[in-house]
Design brief:
With 78 residues, the chain is α/β, with parallel strands linked by helices. The chain contains three helices and three strands, in the order βαβαβα.
Amino acid sequence: MKAIDGSLVLITGGSSGIGLALAEQLFAQGASVVILARDQQRLDAAVAKIEKQRHRQTQKLGALSPDVTDEPALRQAL
């Protein structure tokens, strides 16, 4: 399996459930993580929770709330 440390990972549904758990795991292993979800308040809470798993200071952590069914809007957000 390829090492995740230093990779950039984009996770849809990252504010709760399996998406959040995956984001926490990957961030703890050194990946930079961007989570996407519809609810900005839940995204903010998820970022605070994920941040506790920081592996090193150079990691990036972000959250976006684009409409993933609107391809142009999603491209612009990314």
